[in-house]
């Protein structure tokens, strides 16, 4: 007990730090934020449909400008760097086959778009590691030129052009990867030191208790 009486402040500090470590780690301020920044975009299209539906491929898609042709890896690459916070249109619409017949009536299909971004570095190296976030928004334009959120589950007729506008927006603020590493190291170090201190206290407590029994 004498050890605890002499080290009340130390015990309080250990408990406080352990409680602090229960909160989620945040990037260290030393890493800083990158704003504005630039990124490269790439996107791909996949199709999911019920049996009987065919001819769904990228030839039906009306792409926006500045997107290159489909590469061997299945991705389309945007031709220019995109600044954080800026938006880029990927798809402007879809024209469905005129050869569709009543055999595909009441059947469902989906057009699935995936996008990735990579930070543009001073060495022009590109790492598609998923650290840059991109939002995807879908719109449609009516006959009066008014934009609105795209409505799914539409009824499509053969040969119909559907205004399906897919827009990518690069996130506004980016965090350096080193910030996450510093944060993890900082919290891990604090937790380790606190755990060692707590074990030290418990060992002394046990030793003191055994000493008291021997004195009896």
Helices, strands, pairings?
Layout: H1 2-6, H2 8-20, E1 33-34, E2 38-49, E3 61-63, E4 76-77, E5 82-83, E6 87-95, E7 109-119, E8 134-141, E9 147-149, E10 161-162, E11 165-170, E12 174-175, H3 177-215
Antiparallel strand pairs: 1-12, 2-4, 2-5, 2-7, 3-6, 6-10, 6-11, 8-9, 8-11
Mean pLDDT: 77
Largest sheet: 6 strands, antiparallel
Radius of gyration in whole Å, from Cα? 29 Å
How far apart, in Å, are the first and last alpha carbons?
Answer: 16 Å
Poorly predicted regions: 27-31
Q: What is the helix tally?
A: 3
Structural description of this entry:
There is one protein chain. Helices cover 26% and strands 29% of the residues. The chain has three helices and twelve strands, in the order ααββββββββββββα. It has helices spanning 2-6, 8-20, 177-215; strands spanning 33-34, 38-49, 61-63, 76-77, 82-83, 87-95, 109-119, 134-141, 147-149, 161-162, 165-170, 174-175. Strands 3, 6, 8, 9, 10 and 11 form a six-stranded antiparallel beta sheet that branches. Helix 2 packs antiparallel against helix 3. The two termini are 16 Å apart. 12% of the residues are buried. Residues 27-31 have low confidence and may be disordered.
């Amino acid at each position: 007990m004498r050890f605890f009486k002499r080290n009340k402040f130390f015990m309080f500090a250990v408990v406080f730090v352990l409680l602090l470590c229960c909160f989620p780690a945040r990037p260290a301020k030393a890493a800083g934020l990158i704003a504005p920044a630039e990124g490269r975009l790439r996107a791909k299209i996949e199709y999911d449909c019920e049996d009987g539906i065919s001819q769904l491929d990228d030839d039906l898609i009306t792409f926006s400008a500045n997107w290159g042709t489909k590469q061997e890896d299945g991705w389309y690459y945007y031709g220019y760097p995109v600044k954080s916070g800026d938006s880029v249109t990927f798809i402007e619409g879809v024209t469905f086959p005129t050869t569709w017949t009543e055999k595909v009536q009441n059947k469902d299909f989906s057009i699935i778009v995936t996008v990735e971004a990579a930070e543009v570095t001073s060495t022009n190296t590109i790492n598609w590691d998923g650290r840059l976030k991109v939002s995807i928004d879908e719109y449609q334009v009516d006959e009066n030129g008014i934009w609105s959120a795209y409505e799914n589950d539409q009824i499509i007729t053969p040969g119909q052009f559907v205004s399906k506008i897919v827009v990518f927006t690069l996130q506004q603020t980016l965090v350096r990867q080193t910030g996450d590493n510093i944060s993890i190291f900082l919290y891990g170090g604090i937790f380790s030191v606190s755990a060692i201190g707590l074990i030290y206290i418990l060992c002394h407590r046990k030793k003191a208790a055994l000493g008291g029994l021997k004195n009896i």
